[in-house]
Amino acid sequence: MSIDRFPVGQEMDVSYPDFQVSLTLLSTSQLKFEIKEGPFARTEVVDIQVVPLGNSIFAVSWQEQNGATVTNVQDHDRGLVHSYATLPSGQFMRLTGTVAVTRPADVVFDDRPRRNKALVLEAMTSLFQRHDASAVRRLYAPDYVQHNPNIAQGRDALEALVAGLSNTVWYEPGLAVAQGDLVAIHGRIRGWAEAPQVVVDVFRIKGGKLAEHWDVLQNEEPSTAALGGIAMFDPEEGTPRSRP
Predict the structure, then answer these.
(1) How many whole angstroms separate alpha carbon 131 and alpha carbon 140?
(2) Of the candidates 68, 55, 66, 58, which has an alpha carbon nearest to the alpha carbon of residue 29?
(3) Lowest mean pLDDT: which of 66-75, 152-161, 167-176, 218-227?
(4) pLDDT above 70 covers what percent of the chain?
(5) For residues 95 and 105, what is the distance between their CA atoms, to the nearest angstrom?
């Protein structure tokens, strides 16, 4: 993650338990904060240091005119700001606030689609190529929701399913598309049913883990030359060179 991904120009309201602050990210070296009400009410432009931590997370630190020092861990994917402040009195505060963006950044970067596709690919190959049941705890959310009526709900049920898979089960990933917190992946699975099946799996990602799943499966049919001879699935379909 580069500092170039810091969302310069973004304006946002951060709601903490006891007060709200408006932040304007003026540059990678300055921000403006405004607290309209309460004992901390004031407006100030401060010099900041920004350190990228990865996955749209930045550590932003500054010192205010009254001597207070603040470090914000801004998580722009999850819409959270974790704040750590030492006041002039010596009081130390730890706060977590939710973010409402009131003006988008001058240049919008969203790295979630790439990361989410990588997460889905890791999950599908871990479970249905390597049959690694231990990957379920690492990759799937504790409250995982399953929309396939033939598979029981929850992470425990998925873990048990993977642990009991036949050695004949083998998954081949193909084209994957992602937007926001959703990923759809086209693939082929052998050994799941009597015939190879072509499947589209759709996942919703929350907090860096797979939180919800839908799928549609169809038995693979041979291509028909009279109709153009294009196969239902090609493991190279996701590579740029194979696209028309």
Answers:
(1) 15
(2) 58
(3) 218-227
(4) 95
(5) 24
Q: Measured between alpha carbons, how far is 3 from 28 in angstroms, rounded to an integer?
A: 8
Segment 50-61, tens digit of pLDDT? 999 988 899 999
Question: In angstroms, rounded to a whole number, what is the distance separating the alpha carbons of residues 70 and 61?
Answer: 6
Q: Which two tokens stand for residue 124?
A: 């599908």
Domains defined along the chain, listed by start: 3-103 (2.40.128.20), 112-242 (3.10.450.50)
The string over 54-71, giving b where at least 16 C-beta atoms fall within 10 Å of a residue's C-beta and e elsewhere, is eebbbbbbbeeeeebebe
Task: Give the angle 133-137-139 at the CA atoms, nearest 5°.
Answer: 95
Collapse the DSSP code of 65 into the 3-class scheme (helix H, G, I; strand E, B; otherwise coil) and give the result. Answer: coil
Q: Which residue has the tokens 């903490």?
A: 16
* pLDDT value at 73 more than 80: yes
> How far is CA 130 from its chain centroid?
24
Q: pLDDT tens digit string along 101-145?
A: 999 999 877 788 888 999 999 999 999 999 999 999 999 999 999
